[in-house]
Amino acid sequence: ELWVSLEEHQDALELIMSKYRKQMLQLLEGRKGEDAEPVLKVHQANSVEIESQIDRICEMGEVMRKAVQVDDDQFFKVQEKLAQLELENKELRELLSISKESFEVEREDLPD
């Protein structure tokens, strides 16, 4: 769920940036006679900030992916241990059953 959320945020940021770029191009085309340098500086500053946010989101996604992997590994280890214990329990019950049967047979064979 976290991974899907991360991808949705990245898609939203990409959509916002594309709309922002379109608006900036329209603004620059409309202001051809004016100095576009301040607008470009603001655009560059915003781009840098958004890129850093995207990088942070990607890092968080990587951390989440590793956490999920660790959690999955732990789950599989627990499942494996549980299967081993169930098998051992079954074998011990069989041994106990054989031992009980042997004891009962010996009791029956003993004279009163």
TrEMBL record:
Keywords: Coiled coil
Domain of life of the organism encoding this protein: Eukaryota
Coiled-coil region: 75-102
Pfam families: SIKE
InterPro entries for the chain: SIKE
Family affiliation: Belongs to the SIKE family.
Protein name from the UniProt record: Suppressor of IKBKE 1
Gene responsible for this protein: Sike1
